[in-house]
Design goal:
Elements (H helix, E strand, L loop, with lengths): L1 E4 L2 E2 L5 E8 L4 E6 L8 E7 L3 E10 L2 H15 L5 E7 L2 E2 L4 E5 L6 E6 L2 E12 L9
Antiparallel strand pairs: 1-2, 1-7, 3-6, 4-5, 6-11, 7-8, 7-9, 9-11, 10-11
Length: 137
């Protein structure tokens, strides 16, 4: 599994993506109730934000390598400007892209040394951006 961030593959930074979950968008109904009448009149509604959670493991040879990869990762996803993410499952790029901003804090957890490389786990939480989330199919 891999993740494209604005067409940049996280696996090129030795980042392993292990989980990709999305929630349903919230529904915001547009209803009005009138004094003296039972119930509400439904005028439709809109869809709110969608949440996307991605679990990654950043692998580094040593501390300077970790800092270089960390700097690149924070440059890719750490800003306030929305960007596109797109999961890759079993070698095939998913057709669905998500226009998101990072809503979680980047807080790596040191896991240990695996195959001679230091590993850091991160749980990334994104929220769809824009008026309707701009999830593109």
């Amino acid at each position: 599994m891999d993740l494209l961030v604005n067409d940049f593959s996280l696996s090129s930074l030795s980042i392993l993506v292990t989980d990709f979950d999305e929630t349903s968008p919230t529904v915001n109904p547009n209803t009005i109730s009138f004094k003296g009448r039972n119930g509400k009149i439904n005028f439709g509604g809109d869809y709110g934000d969608k949440k996307v959670t991605v679990t990654i493991y950043l692998k580094a040879n040593d501390y300077p390598d970790y800092l270089a990869k960390w700097d690149k990762l924070t440059t890719l996803i750490g800003g306030v400007t929305p960007f596109f993410i797109q999961p890759i499952f079993n070698g095939g790029v998913n057709k669905k892209r998500y226009y998101v901003t990072l809503t979680s804090q980047l807080d790596p957890e040191y896991v240990g040394t695996i195959d001679g490389m230091d590993s850091y786990k991160l749980m990334l939480e994104f929220t769809t951006a824009g008026e309707i989330g701009r999830a593109h199919v």
